[in-house]
Amino acid sequence: MKPVVSIVGRPNAGKSTLFNRITRKKDALVDNFPGVTRDRHYGDATWNDVAFTLIDTGGFLIDDEDAFAGEIRFQIDQALEDSDAVILLLDGSSGISPFDADIIDILREVSIPVFYAVNKIDGIEKEDSQYDFYSLGIETLYSLSAEHGYGVPDFLDDLVSVLPESAEEDSSDVIKLAVVGRPNTGKSSLINRILGEKRLVVSNIPGTTRDSIDTACEINGKSYLLIDTAGIRRKSKVSKKLEKFSIIKALKSLDRCDVALILIDAGEGITEQDIKIAGYAYERKCGCIFLLNKWDIVEKDDKTVKKYYEHLRMEAKYLSFAPAMTISALTGLRVTRIFNLVDTVHDQYARRINTGQINKIIERAVERTEPSLHKGKRIKFYYTTQVTTKPPTFVCFVNYPDAVHFSYKRYLVNKIREASGLDQTPIRILFKLRTGKIVFSTAKPGKKGKRAKGSKRKRK
After folding, report:
1. Same domain, yes or no: 14 and 77
2. How far apart are CA 73 and CA 195, in angstroms?
3. What values do phi and psi take at 271, rounded to 5?
4. 184 and 304 share a domain?
5. Which of 59-73, 198-212, 366-380 has the lowest average pLDDT?
6. Contact indicator for 133, 140 with CB cutoff of 8 Å
7. Same domain, 300 and 335
8. How confident is the model at residue 200, as a pLDDT?
C-alpha cells in the first residue's frame, strides 16, 4: 500500500488548493469561503518517482457555531490515524490564529513526521510573513504558495524523503462503485454501513456531501473502491455555484466507475429526478444497480415490492437490464447481498465473447428477422467482433451502416443478451462499412453464394 499524507489546518488556509497542486488535478473543491471541504478527500500523487496518497481534510474548528465542526474534527482525527506523515498548512496572509496553537498541541503528540508550511507566500518578497509563526515553537517552517507553486518543489523534496517505501499496487482487480442519487437518499449512510465505521460525514441536511469521496475496502477477498458523491438535484433547484460544481463532479464519478449504485428513497417513492439520474448512468454506459433504500419505513404488504419494481421498470425502460433490490442502510437490511449483485453485474460488464460465438448469434438473429430494405436494397451483415469490454462493445460490418434502424439495433442487442447471458449489463453495438463475399442471409444450406463483382474463377 502507498504511504499516506494528510493535509490539516484551519478553514480557508488553502488546503484544497495545495491538494490540487500536489496531485496535479482539480479533484478538491476550492472556493473563497471557509468550510467547503467537510469529508476527507483522497488523491494519488507522485514526486521524485515516489508515489503516495494525499488526504485533504476539513478546516480545523473548536467551539465553532458550524453544525459540522464536531464531524470535521472527527474526520481529521481519522485521517491522522491513517497517515504516515502530516502537513499543517498555516495561513501566511492572515497571520497566527488561536486555531493554529490548538492543532499544533495535538500534532506534538503524534508519532509521525509533521511538516509545517506557511501558505500564501507568493514570492521571496513576502518571506517575512512567516516569521511570526516561529513564536508557536516550530523549528522548521516551509514558505510556499499553493496557488502559484512558489516553494512547493523544495517542500515536496523533503516530504517524500521521509515516506516509507511501498510496493506497486495492482488495481486491475479493483471494482469501482459510484453511489449516486438525489440528496438525502442515504448514500453516505450506506457506505458507512458497508465499511462498518463512521467514515463519511452523515447528516439529515441535504447536500452534506459536496466532494466525490473515494474509499477502498475489501469484502469476501475482493477489492472495491466506493465513490460517495454529492446528491444530484433538479437543475431548477440548483442556485449556488459550489453545488453546481458538486453535481458536475458527481457526474464525472460515473465516467470512472464500473458499476453505479443508484440509491432511491423508497419512503418518498420513485421520482422523476431518480429516473433522470439513472439516465446519466445509462448515458455513460456503466453497469447499474437500483437500490430502494429506507425500506424499513415503507408501509408494505405482499404486493408492495412487485409494485415498486413494476413502477421502476415502467419509468426507466432503457434500464430494463439493471437489477434492483430493496435495502435499509440504517438497519443493514440486505446490505451484505449488494456485493453478490455487484459481482454478477461486473462479471458481465467485463466479459468478452469470442468471435465465433458472436458471429453465430448475429447470423441466427438476421436469419430469423431480416433488416428492412434500404432504397430497395437488402442490408447485409458481413462480420461481427467484440472490440472492447466495460461495457461489452461489438462492431458489425455492414454495407449500409447508417441505414440500420434503431429498433433493429435494439433487436440485435436483445438477441445478444439472450444467447450470451449478458442480461444485466449495458451492451454497445456499432455499425461500420465493409464489403465482402460472405454474408449472413436466409439462403438455404448448400446453395452457392454469388461471386463478388469483377472477380474471376481460378483455372485448375
Report:
1. yes
2. 20
3. -105, 170
4. yes
5. 198-212
6. no
7. yes
8. 44
Helical H segments across 197-349, by residue range: 241-255, 272-283, 304-315, 338-349
Q: Which residues have a Cβ under 8 Å from the Cβ of 151 and sit 6 or more positions away?
A: 121, 142, 143, 144, 145
Q: Can you tell me the distance from the alpha carbon of 232 to that of 277, in angstroms, rounded to the nearest whole number?
A: 7
Asked if 319 and 388 sit in the same domain, the reply is: no
Q: How many CB atoms lie within 10 A of CB 123?
A: 11
In this predicted structure, the answer to whether residue 96 has a pLDDT above a threshold of 90 is no
Distance CA 162, CA 320 (A): 53
Give residue for cell 449516486.
Answer: 180
| Whole-angstrom distance, CA of residue 357 vs CA of residue 164 | 50
Phi, psi (degrees; rounded to nearest 5) at 273: -70, -35
3-state secondary structure of 189: helix
- Res. 270: pLDDT tops 80: yes
- The whole-number pLDDT of residue 173 equals 80
Q: What angle do CA 82, 110, 26 make, to 5 degrees?
A: 45
Average pLDDT over residues 153-174: 80
Q: If DSSP codes are grouped into helix, strand and coil, which group holds residue 262?
A: strand
Q: Which of 364, 380, 337 lies closest to 420, judged by CA?
A: 364
CA distance 11 to 281: 34
For residue 220, count CB atoms less than 10 angstroms from its CB and return exposed for 0-12, middle for 13-18, buried for 19 or more: exposed
Q: What is the DSSP letter of 299?
A: -
Q: What's the grid cell of residue 372?
A: 428492412
Span 396-416, average pLDDT: 95
Burial label, 242 (beta-carbon count in 10 A; 0-12, 13-18, 19+): middle
In a domain? residue 451: no
Inside any domain, residue 169: no
454 has pLDDT over 80? no
Burial 173-183 (b: 16+ CB within 10 A, else e): eebbbbbbbbb
Q: Which residues pair with 433 in a beta bridge?
A: 398
248 and 277 together in one domain: yes
Cell, residue 308: 415498486
Q: What is the C-alpha to C-alpha distance for residues 16 and 28, in angstroms, rounded to an integer? A: 6
Neighbouring C-beta atoms of residue 459, cutoff 10 Å = 4
Identify how many contiguous H helices and E strands the chain contains and give both numbers: 11, 15
Q: What is the distance, to the nearest Å, from the Cα of residue 169 to the centroid of all Cα atoms in its chain?
A: 19
Buried/exposed 265-304: b ≥16 CB within 10 Å, e otherwise: bbeeebeebbbebbebbbebbbbbbbbbbbbeebeeeeee
Q: The pTM is what?
A: 0.60
34: in domain: yes
Task: Please check whether residue 411 is in contact with residue 370, taking contact to mean a CB–CB distance below 8 angstroms.
Answer: no
CA–CA distance, 278 with 260 (Å, rounded to integer) = 9
User: Which residues span the domain enclosing 407?
Assistant: 355-433
Q: Max CA-CA distance within the chain?
A: 100
